[in-house]
Structure formats: structure tokens, C-alpha cells
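for ur thesis appendix - Cupin 2 domain-containing protein. copy paste whatever u need, i formatted it the way the template wanted (i think)
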Amino acid sequence: MKECQMVTNFTRAQVSIPGNERVAMTPFGARMFIHALRTETGGAFGIWDTFTAPGEGPAPHTHTRETEMFRVVQSTYRFWCGGEEFDAPPGTIVVLPPHVEHAWRNIGSELGQMLGIATPGGCEGMFRDIAALGLGATSMDIAAVEARYGIINDETKALAITY
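the 3d part is after this line
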């Protein structure tokens, strides 16, 4: 059996010091701190923290390019993935496969925090691009960015139909 090897040119340590992170935003408006971009890791991964208000989370969506991993740091989240539903208190690690629809929501009463990792990296750039749209961005503006990053959801499906 052959071993699977990821080929990258990741040859330097990537260090994210508190206070020096890059600020970004999720499609649903949650604040994020990006710790490592794919361009800094030879494409191997991207890392970020997401801060989610109680009751907030993304709409169901599918990643076509990467596996996502989350570690719940603060509050409790509910995850939906491929027809399964489960709660994730602090300390829980959740790995979400590509090509499987999923969503999550902060079901706690406090600001939630999750550390996210995507491999291969790339989708963390989407969060920077969404933040760059500014506060006046429409759902279709955001969907256009998501589509460029291989995200499938109701908005990106509608966008594809209109083009």
C-alpha cells in the first residue's frame, strides 16, 4: 500500500502572536482572527479563531476543496453533518469531511470561540475577502466570494443559475 504524502514548500515556522492576528469576517458576520494562511504554509493548511454570538452560525454549506477541523474553546456548539446532529462542549474536536453538507451554531449563552483548521489551506482567504467587501455587502456579493472558494450553499447555487 502506498503512503499518501502532501507535497508543500512549507519550510519556516508560522507564528501568530496574540494581538498581531489578521482580522476577518465569516459570511454570517462573526469576527475571526486568522493565524496562518495557505500562502504561509505551502498550501498545507489555514488556521483561524472564530468568535460566535449565542444563536449564531453559518447556514448549511458544503466545502468542495478542504477538510475542516474545529476545537471548541468556549461555549457549546451544535453541529449538523451529513444527517447527524451532535453537541460539542469546550474541548471537543470535530472533523468535517469535504463534499458533505454541514452547519454549526453556538447554542450556549456566552460568546463562543472555536479554533478552525482547513487542509489543504485556502478557505481562510475567503474570510478576508468577505471582510474586504465591507458592511454594505449583499448576500449575493458574499455568495460570489464563497463560489470562488468552492463553497456550495443556497446562495451560491442561485448565483450559478443567474450567470
